[in-house]
Amino acid sequence: MSERPRARLAILRRSRTLLVDEALREHQVTLLPLGTRFSAVRIPGRLLVALTGINEAPKLDRFLRETLDGGPVICDPRFRRYHALVPASMPRTWHQALDDWRAMDVDCLGRGSYLDVPRVDAVQWTRPRATYWSAPMDSPTALCSPVEVARLIAAGRHCMPAEPEV
């Protein structure tokens, strides 16, 4: 590769990094890689609303804290979804269930995925689009139980409206 394309590539990489850094600062989050210390199960807000009938963020947060025994959950209100933090092994050990869950837009994010993690003091909904801890993380080793997360998803699945046949 000649000098000119290398220089352009370096500029593009640096520009992308600056844009990502600016976005992360604006939303007060840190981008963390998944699959090493923990993974995350993405749960759409509509599944939780179907299960509970609750639309208010503080009440959904309380429901998740109680249902998942205080395990850490991050809320991303921009996309109305929640991320339950689970052991890093969950994407491998629950792969068959994950295939079924994907039809509901549930996914388990592990190696090769990144997650916007809010500041530790962002523990309640304060403004639209601001990621926060729906259920704060007490310690890096205190994660959601995969079985409890699976039960929550299974219960929500039965409450979801049927998709129209195509």
- Gyration radius (Cα, Å) is 18 Å
SSE ordering: HEEHHEEHHEEEH
Query: What structural class do the secondary elements suggest?
Result: alpha+beta
Number of strands: 7
Tell me the fraction of residues in β-strands, as a range: 15-25%
Q: What is the arithmetic mean of pLDDT?
A: 83
Please tally the helical runs, counting DSSP H or I stretches of 4 or more residues.
6
Distance between the termini: 50 Å
Spans of at least 5 consecutive residues whose pLDDT stays below 50 are: 11-21
Which strand order spans the largest sheet, edge to edge or round the barrel? Answer: 5-2-4-3-7
Could you describe the largest sheet, including whether it forms a barrel?
5 strands, antiparallel
Envelope shape: globular
Q: What level of helicity do the residues show?
A: 40-55%
Any overview of this molecule?
By secondary structure, the chain is of the alpha+beta class. It is built from 6 helices and 7 strands, in the order H-E-E-H-H-E-E-H-H-E-E-E-H. The strands form 2 sheets. The chain has a 5-stranded antiparallel beta sheet with strand order 5-2-4-3-7. It has a two-stranded antiparallel ribbon with strand order 1-6. A hairpin with a 4-residue loop joins strand 3 and strand 4. Helix 2 crosses helix 6. The longest helix is centred in the N-terminal third of the chain and has 25 residues. It is globular, with a radius of gyration of 18 Å. It starts with a helix and ends in a 7-residue tail after the last helix. About 7% of the residues have low confidence.
